Amino acid sequence: MLYTVSISKPCLAYPKSTWQSRKPSNRKSFGLKVSATLAELNGVKVEYTPWLIVGLGNPGNKYHGTRHNVGFEMVDRISQEERIVMNTIQSKALVGIGSIGEVPVLLAKPQGYMNFSGESVGPLAAYYQVPLRHVLLLYDEMSLPNGVLRLQPKGGHGYHNGVKSVIEHLDGRREFPRFCIGIGNPPGTMDMKAFLLQKFSDVERKEVKQIVQLL
């Protein structure tokens, strides 16, 4: 799901030794040309295109475990499973560089609060020259029942301020994939902001945990 292949020239070029696998295995390291070359097919080398995977949320312990921070949890899960260490600050985001299988990836968690997420995503995509179709956003979605996942190839912001900020900093472009996890709607007349910044109930947390573990 997180990769495409191209049988042509590498799509991207990066500063030397910027991309490299963090796993203690026989993974390849990525130098000037960011590509993981497989066996040749009919005499043509197959190369992977890198991804920028961004989880949306708010930084700080105050927001840990809240509904609005599900995007952070999803990125944390990928980081743990793929052993990609996130210990660098770049473009106001906590980032980690590694790979999923043979596909080079950059994981990011913007640290400028949800409404300013685009201030990280736009510069990171530009600096690493990641094509728009490979900028994957992970975030919470109130229009979906709690714990339900939805993958979209493109779309609007759906009144999600984090997504809105990202679109604004990608020059208004909306043609990037997004992976949403449902958090449901506020009960009764509960304020939306209060709902988003509230922690999950025990039942809701169990549902979300089961889904996040599938990543």
TrEMBL record:
Coiled coil start-end: none
InterPro entries: Pept_tRNA_hydro, Pept_tRNA_hydro_CS, Pept_tRNA_hydro_sf
Taxonomy, superkingdom: Eukaryota
Any one GO molecular-function label of the UniProt entry: peptidyl-tRNA hydrolase activity
Annotated family: Belongs to the PTH family.
Protein name per the record: Uncharacterized protein
Organism for this UniProt entry: Centaurea solstitialis (yellow star-thistle)
Organism classification: Eukaryota, Viridiplantae, Streptophyta, Embryophyta, Tracheophyta
